[in-house]
Structure formats: structure tokens, C-alpha cells
Amino acid sequence: MTEATGIVGEFLSLKEETDADILAMQCGDFYEFFADDAELVADELDLKVSQKSSHGSKYPMAGVPVDDLTPYVSALVERGYRVAVADQHETADGHAREITRVVTPGTHLATGDDSAQHLAAVVRHDGGRGADGDTYGLAVADVTTGRFQVTQLDDADAGAALTELYTFSPAEVLPGPDLRNDDGFLATLDERSEAAVSLHATESFEPGRARHRVREQFGAETLASVGIDGSDAAIAAAGAVLSYVEETGVGTLAAVTRLRAYGARDHVSLDATTQRNLELTETMQGDSAGSLFDTVDHTVTAAGGRLLKRWLQRPRRERGELVRRQAAVAALTREAMAREAIRETLADGYDLERLAARATSGSADARDLRAIEDTLGLLAEVADAVAETERLADSPLSDVLAGPDRAAAADLAAELDAALVAEPPGTVTQGGLFVRGYDDDLDALIEEHEAALEWLETLPDREKERTDITHLSVDRNKTDGYYIQVGKSETDQVPDAYEEIKTLKNSKRYTIPELDEHERDVLRLEERRHEMEAELFEQLRGRVADRAALLQNVGRALAEVDTLASLAVHAVENDWTRPELTDDGRLDIEAGRHPVVEQTTEFVPNDLDMRPGERDFLVVTGPNMSGKSTYMRQAALVTLLAQTGSFVPARAATVGLVDGIYTRVGALDELAQGRSTFMVEMQELSNILHSATEDSLIILDEVGRGTATFDGISIAWAATEYIATTVRAKTLFATHYHELTSLGESLPTVQNVHVAADETDGDVTFMRTVRDGPTNRSYGVHVADLAGVPEPVVDRSREVLDRLREDKAIEVRGGESDDGATTQAVFDLSSGQFDEGARQVDGSSDAATTDETVAETIDAETEAVLEELRDIDVNETPPVELLSKVQQWQTELNEE
Ligand code: ADP
Ligand code: MG
């Protein structure tokens, strides 16, 4: 066997051992990728591929220098790959290689990004005993900060579990044994999230083993004390995450100091679609600029930014916590001086949560420990600033700062300060880390080392004096070690004891026995000093790692102050108001604005008044571009901001706390961006109809528009009735189906509002204010005009439109026209015939075509569909069944 076979063979067999996508194997000073991995890495990272001959075959090979591996691995992991790293170590007979760690999207420590990085496990246990749904367990860890959270959803479905998962935007998901075989679940996960899906050993999810793992990490009592002792699914997920982190070998498990269990009722339900529609952290175009987070973020620390983002993505339902945040924000809005002083102080700090993880994983260097010391010191500064300002001292800010153990923080800071030099080097193996007086043995060693160095430093002066040579120096390089260098002109004056070792152009190098001896001493002492410092440093770092929980507590307290101050800054700068939070389901906004749009537009404020039992459901009409979508999103964002503890963009607001915010934008608007299909639109509508409760807020924007008019109207109509009568959630529904406004007549809690526009001489002026009642016309023709459709076409459309209006041809039966008369249906549900009125539009080729088409297609099949349509009881049929009926009819009709 040739050596090449050995290496490639070894690579391939190591690759067999791991589930990772790519293997980097150390070969001396390089990490090498072979075969397919080489091609892949070269492709992704622009590396050069060479050929390695082995056993008569050639293998592609690519490599990176040992010291450069980290950025390459990071780049691969950021593209979603799992990268295994096999290190080489010396053995009695040469060297051996083994996989020491696997870096994955969820366990990546060297992330260049301040955002949270979540690794999640999700487990499904059969509901059993007549339960409607199953039990889902969810565990979410951020290895870069040590945060760890678990929850269990009882009697739930996959949609609810995924919704919960999406609020964390996980980087990597470990599906449990049951879910990894569920193609539907995996497909949805793949479609809606950017998470890498990794298959972790099924045994790790086994409840007994998982329970053991969790107890090992957090102590025997923790499960009971956080109230999840009986939650097997949650424990299975938690155990799996812990064992996965352990197996990948990133070494941050010790940073996971605390288990936080939260209940399904703690947070406002926000599914992935809603997060996207509301542009919480990125815009629909995928930019972070222009998102809600980007707009309201004035944090000065990375941890504060992470916390603010989490608050926005996971709004709370519990009023107590929200009022606490509000009170702190309110106090900060009124103490501008103290607030700015505190923010300036915070800005000097570093990311303690991340530094704690670096300490426990053993990657923190002396500068990191200095950063920890500096930041720990800020706690007292901030606490003093709060204590000195009465309004802040009386606010919940005091409680936030009372959380971490201030004395322990001061002790640790003092310990670090007494150990490390002010500006330590960036490497821990080259000495120079510790101040004198830190360790007696080290001091003795340093003294000896420095005395030896001093002898060397003073050697030239001594030799010059002794020999009368003027051009004499003592230097050191890698090959020659220490040497005496003498200029060419004076080489004849060197004493006999000088032993020549090298001749250069202008000088010669010599050595003398004492120099050799001292050189050996210096090198020996230097090496010992480096070793000793490295060892002491490791001990110091270990002691810091032992106090990871303290670092996290201080880090979280400072982050929270930063986040609260950020909310205060935004409230002051934008004239936001503190909303009143109630449990009565109202949403009353006076002179409200859209938090993002108001930044770039002269925004016209508008009111919103929703009251349970009276005005639960608002049908929002108005011309295209009048502001319907903006108005509805504004309602959702005001609610969401209120439930993060923030002030809101309005003159006054009363916000009834909601349990979930659901939004759906019609597929037509989304289709334009290539994001959605009608099927997805309907699945999401179905999910909303299932999940929303009377405590939810639903925003439907042109739902039903992704399909042909009639089934679009039918769906919108049926969904409205179902929400208004059965779900009873607060709902805003913008529609261009003017027909829907007539639902206000038959359903007492459904009301119409419209965004006002003024039409004079065919020109539309947008007023941007919202008024009660429906609009009486649609403005599509005007938009056609604005878009530059040729004048004859625009004129002709106006004519046709007027005719159609006269004939009430596009009204659906059951509504009332302006003059109060019952209108005729274009499609008469009882006869299955088109109304006469519609046929009278003469001369219009459009209308004529429609007519003929209709006449032709009323055959037996169509009759059968119409029969079913006529007989179906809309109120008694579950909406999903209705939808599938509609789809079935559509298929049957299309088969013609
Ligand atoms: P629609 O959904 O009715 O078609 P949009 O909500 O998309 O209309 O709004 C159209 C445009 O009007 C957007 O560019 C938005 O910025 C602007 N706009 C909406 N509401 C207001 C308002 N209240 N004040 C100022 N500009 C507004
Ligand atoms: Mg719109």
C-alpha cells in the first residue's frame, strides 16, 4: 500500500464514521479535503483543487493551512453544512487521526454574527387515551450564550409545534424519532425555515436516557422545580439537545447553566408567515433594513440587540411582566440625562453571555478575560446611576439590577484585575499575561528569566569594553540562536575565544561558551515561563468558567437595561405613547401610525376601534393603494409592540392582550414575489381557522384573491362567517370583493370601514383616513389609467363599468344596493343560472364572451357541481371541508 492510499483511505474511513457533510482532516500543517468533499469545498469557497494519486487512481484534494481552518469552517457552516474536523496527534509509532469535533449550524461557536443561534430538538409523543392531538416537546439551546429553554405542547398538532419552533428562527433542528419519518412535517419545516435538519441518534431521545442526561446537566431536582418532571416529550427533546451538543464536541455544555421551562400560554403565537408579513426582523425582500427590529433598535450592545429581537419575536401574554417593562421604559423616557449616561456606560461593555461560553469551551484568551473584567465592573456603575436617580430607583430597573450577585461580580473582577496585565497579548502560550505578585513561583521564574535576559542584553557593552570593538551586537534568529555579530572591519580584533559560525557580506557571527550556556538558560526559562503562564491561565479561565452562571446573570441584566433604554429612546424620539393593557379584548387606537412607514412618510394618523361583541370583525375596503394593508399591519404591530412592553405609535391606545396574531396575505400579492401558491394560502387559512381563538387577532389581506373570482368570493365569504360566528377572534379583513361588505348587514359583529379616497372628475385623491362604512366603488379603472393603459381602453372600461353597475351585475344576491333595494345576483344560487341583467351589456365583447362561455358549460357535470353547491349548508360545514369542496368543484369544472 502506498502512503497516498493510506491517507485517502483513512480519510474515507473517517468520513464513514460521521454524519457530517464534509470532513477536514489534518495532515501536518494542513487540513485536507479529499474526493467529493474536495470538489464541494473548492466550489463553495473558491479553493484550488489538485490531484492526489493513490493506488493507481487520482483523487481531488484541497487544503487549508492549520491556522486558517476556522474561517473556512465558519463559511461552510453558514452555508448550512456540517463539518467534521479530524485532528492529528502524535503516538508512539508516528501519528493518528480522529474526529475531535463536528461543527454544525446550531453548534457553531465562531459565529461572526451577534444574533442568537438556536439549536432545537422537537419530539412528538402519541397523544393516546382519546386525545385529539399529540404531545410535542421542544428544547432550544443557544450554545454561544448558554441559554436553554424547553416547553411541552399537549394535545397539539404539527402546525402548533412548528409555529412554536419558528419563533426561535432555529439554525438547526433535530427531529425526534417519530417526526423524522413524517414527510409532511419535514417538508413544511424545509419550506418555512432555513434550519438545517440533522438526524441525531434515536436513543438520545429515549425518555429514560434523556431524563438521566438532563439531571446530569442541571441536577436531580431541577425537573421538578421548573415543573416539567412529568413532561416526557419536553425532557426527551432536552436530553437530545444536550447529548448532541456534547457529541459535536464544541465544549460549551458547561455554559448551559440553567434550564428554563416555559408554558405554551406565556407567549403570543406568531407563525412564520406572520413574522414575515409583519416584517419583524426582515422585510419581505429579505433585508434587515426597514424591518420593525431595525426601526426600533437603539441598543448599544450585542446582547441588548439580541434581547430586543427576542422580545419582538416572542411577545408576552402575561400583563404583570409587560407592565413591569412599561414602567421601566416610562421612567427611562423621563430621565434623559441618566438614560444617556447609562447607555454610554453600557456601550463600553462586551458580550458577557458569549464570553462565558468562550470561557467554558476553553477558547477565551487573556483579552477575553480582561473584557469580562471590564464588563463586570459596569454592573456597579449602572446600578449606581439608577440608584442616584429617584425615578429610576423607584422603577423596576432596580429589580433588574438586583438580580445578579453584585458582590460576586466585584470579586471576580478584582481577581481578574489582580492577575492579568492591563493589555495582555492575544495568545496565551507566549507568556506576558500575568502581573507580578500574582503567583510566587511564577514571579521567581520571571526573575530568573529576566536576570538571564539581562545578562544577554548587557553582553554587548561588556564585550565592547573588553575587546575595544565598536561594531558589536548580540542578536538572535531561528537558525543560529543567540550570536555575537562583529562588523567586517573589526573581525581581526576578536578574541581567540570567539568561535566563528557564519560569514556575511559586512559582518561575521560568533559564539562564545558563556553565550551558549546563557542561551540554553534563557530558552529553558522562557519555555518554563510560557508553560507556567499557560497553565496558570488555564486555571484562571477554569475559575471564570465555573462562574459562567454569574457572567450570564450580569450579562442578561445589562442586556435588559440596554433593551429597555432602547425602547425608551425610540418612544421619546418618535412621540410614542404608553398603551393601556386590558383583558377585555378591546383594541382602541387613537391617531395610530405604522411604526415603520411613519419613518419615511408624512403619515396620516388614523383611528381603530374594535370591541368584542360589537365590532369584532372589520371588513376594510378602499381603492388600491389607499392604505388598507398598512392600516391592518399597523393594528397588528401596535398590538405586538404593546405585548413586548414597548410604547406604541399612537396618541392613545388601549390594547386587549391577545394570545396570538395571525396574518395571511392573499396569494396574488405573494405570487408576484414567487413565494406562495393558492394551495399554501388555503393551508394557512385553514391553520388560522383552526388555531385562532376569541383572544386572537387575525389580519386577512385580500385572502381568496389567488383564484378565480367566484371561488375567491365564496371562500372569503365562508371564512368571514366562520370567524365571526365560531372563532370570534378580532379580525381585520381587507378585500377587493366589494360584495363582502354586505355581510355587515347579516352578522351583527361584522362592521365595514373604508380608507377614504376622493374622486373628482375621474381623479382619485387618497385621504389615508379610515372611516366607518363600506366604499361604494372600486377604483381599478383609475389604477389602469395611472398605469398608462391607453386612453380608449380606459374610457371604454369606465363605460362598461358604469353599465355593469347600473345592472348590479357584479353584486351577489343577499346584499343591498345603495338605494336599499335587494340586488340581483350575477350568479343566482337558487336557479344555478346567470341573471338576465348581466346579459344585457351589449357591445361589450367581454360580457358577450362570458355569456357564451357560461351557456356552453352548463352541462351535466356543471349541473352536478351546482347541485352540490346549492345544497351545502355553509353554517354547518367545517371550513376546511368547505375549502376542499370548493377545490373539488373547481377541479371538476376545469376537467371540461
Ligand atoms: P392598499 O393595501 O390599500 O393597496 P397600502 O397599504 O399598500 O395600500 O398603501 C399604499 C401606500 O400608501 C404605501 O406606500 C403606504 O406607504 C402609503 N400609506 C398607507 N397608509 C398611509 C397613511 N396613513 N399615511 C401616509 N401614507 C400611507
Ligand atoms: Mg394591500
Describe the structure.
The chain is of the alpha/beta class and 896 residues long. The longest helix is centred in the middle third of the chain and has 34 residues, at 513-546. The strands form 6 sheets. A 7-stranded mixed sheet has the order 13-23-24-25-21-26-27, sandwiched between helices. Strands 3-4-2-1-5-6 form a 6-stranded mixed sheet, with helices on both faces. A 6-stranded mixed sheet has the order 11-10-7-8-9-12. 46% of the residues lie in helices and 19% in strands. A hairpin with a 2-residue loop joins strand 3 and strand 4 (57-65). Helix 14 (352-361) packs across helix 20 and helix 26 (709-727) packs antiparallel against helix 33. The protein has 33 helices and 29 strands. Residues 628-629, 701 line the site of magnesium ion (MG).
Which short descriptors sum up this protein?
binds adenosine-5'-diphosphate; 33 helices; 896 residues; 6-stranded mixed β-sheet; binds magnesium ion; alpha/beta; 7-stranded mixed β-sheet
Give unreliable regions as ranges.
Answer: 807-857
Secondary-structure content class? alpha/beta
How is the largest sheet built, in terms of strand order? 13-23-24-25-21-26-27
Query: What would you call the shape?
Result: elongated
Average pLDDT reading: 86
Count of separate DSSP helical elements: 33
Tally of DSSP β-strands: 29
Which percent bin holds the helix content?
A: 40-55%
Q: Which band does the percent of strand residues land in?
A: 15-25%
> Largest sheet, described in full?
7 strands, mixed
* End-to-end CA span: 70 Å
Ligands in the model, by name, code or SMILES, are: adenosine-5'-diphosphate, magnesium ion
State Rg.
36 Å
